[in-house]
Amino acid sequence: MTTTFDQLASRILDGTPATADDALAVLRAPDDALLDVVAAAGRLRRRHFGNTVKVNYLVNLKSGLCPENCNYCSQALGSTADILKYKWLDTDEALAQAAAGLRGGATRVCMVSSGRGPTNKDVDRVADMVGAIKAENPQVEICACLGLLKDGQAERLRDAGVDAYNHNINTAESHHDTIVQTHTYADRVDTVTKVKAAGLSPCSGLIAGLGETDEQLVEALFALKALESDSIPVNFLMPFDGTPYENTWELSPTRCLKILAMARFVCPDKEIRIAGGREMHLRSLQALALNVANSIFLGDYLTSEGQAAEADLEMIRDNGFVVLGAETEPGPDGANSQHTPTARRRGAGTAALPNA
Ligand code: SF4
Prior knowledge:
Layout: H1 5-13, H2 20-27, H3 34-49, E1 52-62, H4 91-103, E2 108-113, H5 120-136, E3 141-145, H6 153-160, E4 164-166, H7 173-179, H8 185-197, E5 201-203, E6 206-208, H9 214-226, E7 231-236, H10 253-266, E8 271-274, H11 278-282, H12 286-289, E9 295-297, H13 309-318, E10 322-323
Parallel strand pairs: 1-2, 1-9, 1-10, 2-3, 3-4, 4-5, 6-7, 7-8, 8-9
Bound molecules: iron/sulfur cluster.
Pathway: Cofactor biosynthesis; biotin biosynthesis; biotin from 7,8-diaminononanoate: step 2/2
Cofactor: [4Fe-4S] cluster; [2Fe-2S] cluster
Region (Disordered): 327-356
């Protein structure tokens, strides 16, 4: 007898992990089974995260001017994408942007810089910023995303108060060398491993729509599971003009939803974050996707505009979810049992990143 998606969810809830074949079945579900997929993945989401949505806010510390050649990236060497390019923000500007995100309802601030990896001086600069943010907002979670790390840098960031470190594996090992040639998949895994060893929370995810096969998407998800990534940002390729992927449009809203659901089935208790490309690719299915994913970025992304922060918060409220940490504390296992509306938001929509 064929296993239904609901039976698959029950099996996972009973302690039997999803297999690669299960993940493929989710990815390849017919569109007329989409609501069954969402309902089943939603059971896993609610078990571990209740009705909460974690809201993250990006501060782009340094933009463009990168020597790496990640083919999907508007900031890469050789990209002619029309983006803002600047060297490090000063500490006051970084603090002002972080504060705007926190006023908008974010509980995690992601401090991101372009480049292959930081120098020790860069790490010191970010450490100072983190100290200043934490002094004013001790409850805030800070995730740094500065590229490939050298020995000792993860520990330095941890000691400065950084909670998590983002470094995406982006795609399957078997597909990696077709999307970038200036560093290897092993380089990326090495940084995620260093982060975990230093006691930081690993945040590592992927980009869908890079010409990968279904099997390679599954391969990437199982790699993230093996790396014990605590948060998994799922990006959907935004094909920027001026990059090698400028004409690559492989994704549909239902496909994106199935990718998120697949991530939930494979990593049921991990933070699944809808990241770049949410508005462009999920479009009117964004709200439905909150039943599968439990985390979003508020407002803008690194070099593109997201939908206005207030619209994001309204979408969360309208669909019966609450912003994690806004008005209620999460219950055991991250769940929030109270359905407290998240209206009365302060200052949402005022945050603006210097993104083109
Ligand atoms: S993804 Fe990061 S390392 Fe790669 S080109 Fe863009 S900024 Fe540089």
